[in-house]
Amino acid sequence: MVHSLDFAGDPHIGVFARVIGDYAIVPPVAPELFLTTIREELGVELITTTIQESSIIGSLVSGNRYGMVVSGLASAHEMSALREHAEVFPLKSSMNAAGNVILANDAMAIVHPDMEELLAEEIGEFLHVPVHRLTFGGVKTVGMVGVATNKGLLLHPRTTRNELRALAEITDLPVGTGSVNMGSTLVGSGLLANDQGYVAGGETSGFELGRIEEVFGFLEE
């Protein structure tokens, strides 16, 4: 099994793709090896599109099995490509980098603590989950520093005890702290994961891979 991978030589694979359940949203410039690997390791169907005419998909899309939240600056053509596979909620706000400001699974959504109350409520209704405002390691862009699946959450390595305590009040999933790509605290930028598997950036160490497997329940018996 392949557990580490680059995107055209760049280990920040979570910047260029977003995995939401059984789908992976990838840009047209994605290398074939990248596409083949995440398709096989995560068991996903690929959706190929840009967002805002950009390849930084991971920063601009979030969601769960109920739908996708995408930057409101996405074009009609890009929205249409996503709507062929799922319901889509355009984030029409100054805080529109959905992948950076929302961390979601099928049971909850955690959003940037400064997000407008009405917008947070609308996101929760769309994704059919309660919405919570938290930081991890003091960072407000929760989607950049965490990855959530229905099996666990991996967060910024300096997530505080108070932050972990607050999270424990809203989920009973395994929660752990860790890093990617030889110490990067931006976990979301270097890890793609769902309930079936995971792939981390190519510079991720064996110790970091072990932590990912522990948190998400992929340790081999």
Give the helix/strand layout.
Elements: E1 4-5, H1 13-16, E2 18-20, E3 23-26, H2 32-42, E4 45-48, H3 57-60, E5 61-64, E6 67-71, H4 76-83, E7 88-91, H5 98-101, E8 102-104, E9 109-111, H6 117-127, E10 131-133, E11 146-148, E12 153-155, H7 161-168, E13 175-177, E14 191-193, E15 198-201, H8 206-216
Parallel strand pairs: 1-15, 3-4, 6-7, 9-10, 12-13
Antiparallel strand pairs: 2-3, 5-6, 8-9, 11-12, 14-15
Structure in words:
This protein has 221 residues and is an alpha/beta fold. It has a single domain, classed as L-arginine/glycine Amidinotransferase, Chain A. Helices cover 28% and strands 23% of the residues. The chain has eight helices and 15 strands. The chain has helices spanning 13-16, 32-42, 57-60, 76-83, 98-101, 117-127, 161-168, 206-216; strands spanning 4-5, 18-20, 23-26, 45-48, 61-64, 67-71, 88-91, 102-104, 109-111, 131-133, 146-148, 153-155, 175-177, 191-193, 198-201. It has a three-stranded mixed sheet with strand order 1-15-14, with helices on both faces. A hairpin with a 4-residue loop joins strand 8 (102-104) and strand 9 (109-111). The radius of gyration is 16 Å and the shape is globular. The two termini are 15 Å apart. The mean pLDDT is 96.
Keywords:
221 residues, alpha/beta, L-arginine/glycine Amidinotransferase, Chain A, three-stranded mixed beta sheet
